[in-house]
Write a structure and sequence with these properties.
Number of strands: 40
Largest sheet: 7 strands, mixed
Number of helices: 4
Structural class: mainly beta
Strand order of the largest sheet: 3-14-13-9-6-7-8
Shape: elongated
Length: 549
């Protein structure tokens, strides 16, 4: 029952207007000579339920509203609901001929509140990626935003089949975002969302005007979250493809039209180069690429809040006493531990030589910032290597966590990408993700292997980041894989409640968190702390980065 769109008009390489003709028939057969029979189809194939080839289908649960008038313009069908059950169209009330001849007016999607066919108000859904309805009766908001009309005013007589060919009164906007080969934790991802910015979202419909239905776009504007209809390599799609349906309107040239949120980073995408008048029954296609920026790391928003820090049951004094901590500001934390590929890019961009030494700045404890050369990293068979003047990940280790990195090396990278190392408190708060248990998933260490690479399952080596389950806030490898450097100098806790703690101004040891591939279950707990010299180089040490919103 699908028909394929048959006309493409390319515009400026990035834009395409799509139009075409198709017709689909769905008969609703009922018993009794007075029953009304319908033949329902489309005049255009740019239907909401479309695949990469723009093939068109009705969906189960689609419902239309029908008005009918007799020869004397008496209303005999008043917003009758007709629903598609997946194979045919039916009305739960039964529809019968009332009069010798009838004229029919129909619209989609059905709205039970409509009482006057000459004055229908319609609003597209602001989140067309979502659904409306209960579990067993959900409908796509994308579909429910596609206003369509159909009329048959020939004055059909009793027993005639009522043909209704629906016309799309709105326009479909599509944007394609190409995938990027930047490695794990960078580039466009399947979690990306795209919204239309500041578009007109409502319209009024006069379904029974003399010649043809009249649709007038309302002036109010808003943002519309688009529907992800395809991912690269699936069902014929080459890019991440998003669609939305909006009323006919004029897009201004050179203005921002798209808001693209990708793993905690917000981008703006322009609309057409010049003013563009949209047309009903057609679609406009854009291609917008994310910048190939190796600093735009995938990140997770961590909300401000309070928690109890430490572990009263621990045998280690460094984890006690438990005390209340308030983090007064939201922050972002990288979704994954920093990888070999990401760190190698930093080393090359900053001109670090084979000795692994580079410049790093940090507070001197006296209110000043000091900059000096320090060892940042050491070559390792599971980490990065230096060949022919270039730093590279070891073969097959691009997406493994960087190791043999000193605290100075972690700090220098965090500065370079515009972030910082997490404080001791930020790290534990993010790891716990609202829990008070030993681990972010509970107290049972038998479940640790689901979330962590540690001594029992790692084979005493690092593993690709993000291959175990994340915590409930979407952070991977907070338990195990590598210990993660934090910003603070080490000190013992007090039992005082604190707000936004950053540790002492000076010290001898920096804090590391999370446990590693060599650690036992206790070392991988949410509260466990290590303290190490900042220049220590160890195959179990890596890090992640935090950013302020």
């Amino acid at each position: 029952m699908n028909k394929r769109l048959n006309l493409f008009l390319l515009l400026s390489g990035l834009l395409s207007m799509i139009a075409g003709c198709s017709e689909e028939s769905f008969n609703s057969d009922t018993t009794g000579s007075g029953d009304i029979r319908f033949d329902i189809g489309f005049t255009s194939a740019a239907r909401v339920a479309t695949d990469a080839e723009f093939e068109s289908t009705w969906e189960k649960g689609d419902a239309i509203g029908i008005f009918a008038y007799d020869a004397n313009n008496n209303l005999v069908l008043n917003n009758a609901k007709v629903t598609y059950d997946g194979s045919e169209w039916n009305s739960s009330d039964g529809l019968y001929w009332k009069g010798k001849t009838l004229k029919f007016y129909a619209y989609y999607p059905y709205d039970a509140t409509v009482s006057d066919p000459a004055d229908i108000t319609f609003q597209v859904k602001s989140d067309q990626s979502g659904t409306t309805g209960e579990d067993n009766d959900k409908q796509s908001n994308y579909s429910l935003s596609d206003l369509m009309t159909a009329t048959n005013t020939q004055g059909l007589s009793v027993g005639s089949t009522v043909s209704l060919s629906f016309k799309h009164e709105f326009v479909m906007i599509q944007v394609e975002v190409p995938a990027q080969a930047l490695g794990k934790g960078l580039g466009a991802s399947e979690n990306m969302t795209v919204s239309l910015k500041g578009v007109q979202t409502g319209a009024t419909l006069n379904l029974t005007s003399e010649n043809t239905p009249i649709v007038q776009t309302k002036t109010e504007t808003g943002n519309v979250k688009m529907y992800l209809t395809g991912k690269p390599g699936t069902d014929g799609y080459n890019n991440y493809t998003y669609r939305a349906v909006i009323p006919v309107q004029t897009l201004q040239g050179g203005s921002d039209l798209f808001l693209i949120s990708n793993e905690g980073v917000l981008y703006k995408g322009s609309g057409p180069d010049a003013e563009l008048e949209l047309q009903a029954e057609k679609a406009v296609i854009f291609t917008r690429s994310l910048p190939n920026d190796i600093k735009n790391l995938h990140r997770v928003l961590i909300p401000a809040g309070k928690f109890m820090m430490g572990d009263a049951e621990s045998i280690y004094a460094s984890m006690k006493p438990v005390h209340e901590v308030t983090l007064s500001h939201d922050f972002y934390m990288t979704k994954y531990e920093i990888t070999n590929a990401q760190y190698a890019a930093f080393l090359n961009a900053t001109g670090v030589g084979e000795d692994g030494k580079g410049q790093v700045s940090y507070p001197d404890g006296k209110g000043n910032e000091q900059t000096e050369e320090q060892a940042l990293i050491k070559i390792d068979t599971d980490g990065v290597n230096y060949e022919n003047g270039t730093w590279k990940p070891q073969d097959g280790k691009d997406d493994f966590p960087v190791i043999n990195v000193t605290w100075y090396g972690a700090k220098a990278y965090a500065d370079w990408v515009g972030g910082s190392l997490p404080t001791d408190a930020q790290w534990e708060y993010a790891c716990r993700a609202g829990t008070t248990t030993t681990y972010s998933f509970g107290d049972d260490s038998n479940e640790l292997g689901t979330y962590a690479w540690f001594s029992y399952n790692s084979g005493r080596k690092t593993h690709e980041v993000g291959t175990k389950a994340p915590n409930s806030w979407g952070l991977y490898d907070m338990h195990g894989n590598v210990n993660e450097w934090c910003a603070d100098w080490f000190d013992y806790y007090s039992d005082d409640a604190v707000t936004d703690p950053t540790g002492p101004a000076t010290g001898s040891f920096r804090i590391a968190r999370g446990g590693s591939y060599t650690g036992n279950p206790q070392m991988c707990s949410s509260a466990y702390r290590l303290n190490r010299k900042p220049d220590e180089i160890n195959t179990t040490y890596g890090f992640r980065v935090v950013f302020l919103p």
